[in-house]
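Why Methyltransferase type 11 domain-containing protein? Reviewers of the renewal asked for a concrete example.
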Amino acid sequence: MLDLGCGNNSPKLTKDVIPECHYIGIDVEDNNQSSERFSDEYMIVKSCNFRSAIELYENSIDAVISSHNIEHCEDRYGTTEALARSLKPGGKAYISFPAQDSTSFPKRSGTLNYYDDEGHLSEPPDFGKIISILTANGLEILYATTRYQPPIHWILGLGNEDLSSETGEIKEGTWCYWGFESVIWAEKAKAA
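Here is what the prediction returned.
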């Protein structure tokens, strides 16, 4: 498994659930990280070198997670292409990033407006361009939405919206209520 932007103790959390997986984490910094020892491979690279680090794994990965990573990359579309090429036939990718509409959302601690996070570069990633890159590199889109709003979490967000608005903080369900993130699940075509 290749985890791009593997902060927030992702190595440990992943190994707790899938202890037998070969976990490769790549990030630009140790972000909320105390568990890199759970990684089988762990790399900290400069943002400008993110794509080349992923290219080391071309056609060798069963699963890629890129959760809120692309928007921090200097070469976000090259990174997306490298992500797609890293997958073996039958390999799956999960990609999430802030929705284009998030640039007009209210500002909240914990990031609701795209510009709340100083690490976000320029504008949110172009959803259509990400999809085009994935499909051009042999991935089938299994699920894709520009604004992820699953019903149960949307209801939680609705229930917490007044408190979130009053405190200026993200609460459980806030992202889903607003549809903060774009989500894509994709699979690389299996060899014939």
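Strands lie at 2-4, 24-27, 41-44, 61-67, 87-98, 139-145, 181-188. This is the kind of structural detail the renewal will allow us to pursue systematically.
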